[in-house]
Design brief:
The protein has helices at 79-85, 96-104, 108-123, 140-150, 173-188, 209-221, 238-244, 258-266, 275-281, 288-293, 314-324, 329-343, 370-373, and strands at 2-12, 25-34, 37-43, 52-63, 65-67, 127-130, 132-133, 157-162, 194-199, 225-230, 249-252, 270-273, 298-300, 360-363, 380-383. The chain is of the alpha/beta class. The protein binds N-(iminomethyl)-L-glutamic acid and fe (iii) ion (FE). It catalyses: 4-imidazolone-5-propanoate + H2O = N-formimidoyl-L-glutamate.
């Protein structure tokens, strides 16, 4: 069955051959959805006939957001840690152990229900693709359990056993790296598409360059693809390691040297910026302008987690990126959609040209510009053409 979507004041296709500018904008547009894919998009006056139709009432339609970096499988919260930071305390990843303890003692049902609530909360704000990491289990059983639950909601699951060295391995870091690269990887790989590591030599909790290399190489050898947490708290080897190993994405990129920027510009690794983390840790924002000027592909994601960034809102991240990181509204929307798709190597999402998945988000506004122009106002939501009316 085909469905014609009309009443689109402005359509963002992210297909420059299809419309104006890098966002491929079409004014007074329509779109035909068939079997979950975009069959046609363009000016309304040229729209073909379809079996049913939906009128979105003069609103903007954009590709659903691609949130390429989240940590949604966890129990408990760290609101008190957030409050302490807002009173001057420093973030170094040490609070992760509190979430690990809460997650280990939670039932599958508790973890599943939190995970599903967060995915629904994201959909309600326009997100249609989400990556989900493990990293709050840190035992063979708990990491595999977290990934099994994550795989219930997304194909983009990421094994992050190397999130921090858990407290029971204090003073025995090499034993923990051996566990992660051995039995833990073996148990988790069937549920994971990606391998990740928190590479941050400045944090006593995270992993240095050599440890990160061992983790990523083991994951690659087991058939997973790489993505990396790097350069969040300080400049370090993580960004260059990610580029060298051909990682799809290196995430945070808050503290970069010129050599890091040159490496990114010469490689294929996407730089994924997570402004919710800087907001929630009261840290300086990454310099997106510097990366874009060097020709680096930039993505935006929420990093949704209970410690460093407890937001599920891509529009909030877009507003921060525009106001605080030197991005234009066009660049920020592209980074939150097509950029996220590049970071996940998902050519099927992040655009609304023919052949793309019909993952639409509708804005209670006439233009994409309102995403940053009306910060904090819930104007975006995912639209499922199969189940939303009115129909004719
Ligand atoms: O991406 N940096 C490491 N991991 C998460 C934070 C996790 C936490 O604080 O619970 C991040 O910011
Ligand atoms: Fe993260």
């Amino acid at each position: 069955m085909s469905t014609l979507v009309t009443g689109i004041a402005e359509l963002v296709t992210n297909d420059p051959s299809h419309g104006r500018g890098p966002l491929g904008l079409v004014a007074d547009a329509a779109l035909v959805v068939e079997d979950g894919a975009v069959a046609w998009s363009g000016p309304r006056r040229r729209a073909p006939a379809a079996d049913a139709s939906i009128d979105v009432g003069g609103r903007a339609v954009i590709p659903g957001f691609v949130d390429s970096h989240t940590h949604l499988v966890f129990a408990g919260d760290r609101a008190a840690e957030f409050e302490a930071r807002m009173s001057g305390a420093h973030y170094d990843g040490g609070g992760i152990s509190a979430t690990v303890a809460a997650t280990r003692s939670a039932s599958d049902d508790v973890l599943r229900s939190r995970l599903r609530d967060l995915v629904a909360e994201m959909r309600g704000q326009g997100t249609t693709t989400v990556e989900v990491k493990s990293g709050y289990g840190l035992t063979v059983e708990d990491e595999a359990r977290c990934l099994r639950l994550a795989a219930e909601v997304t194909p983009d699951t990421t094994f992050l056993g190397a999130h921090v060295v858990p407290v029971e391995y204090a003073g025995r870091r090499e034993d923990y790296v051996a566990l992660v690269t051995g039995p833990m990887l073996e148990s988790c790989a069937p549920f994971a598409r990606w391998i990740d590591v928190f590479c941050e030599p400045a944090s006593a909790h995270a992993f240095d360059g050599e440890e990160a290399r061992a983790v990523l190489e083991a994951g690659l050898a087991r058939g997973l693809q790489a993505r990396v947490h790097a350069n969040q708290l300080s400049a370090g080897p993580g960004v260059r390691l990610a580029v060298e190993l051909g990682a799809a994405s290196v995430d945070h990129c808050t503290h970069l040297t010129d050599a890091d920027v040159d490496a990114l510009a010469g490689g294929t690794t996407v730089a994924t910026l997570l402004p919710g983390a800087e907001f929630s840790t009261r840290s300086p924002y990454p310099d997106a302008r510097r990366l874009l000027s060097a020709g680096v592909t930039v993505a935006l994601a929420t990093d949704c987690n209970p410690g460093s960034s407890f937001t599920s809102s891509m529009p909030f991240c877009i507003a921060l990126a525009v106001r605080e990181m030197g991005m234009t509204p066009v660049e920020a929307l592209w980074a939150a959609t097509a950029g996220g798709a590049a970071a996940l190597r998902r050519p099927d999402v992040g655009h609304l040209g023919p052949g793309g998945r019909a993952d639409l988000a509708v804005l209670d506004a006439p233009s994409y510009r309102y995403l940053a122009y009306r910060p904090g106002v819930p104007i975006a939501r995912a639209l499922a053409p199969e189940d939303s009316g009115p129909r004719t």
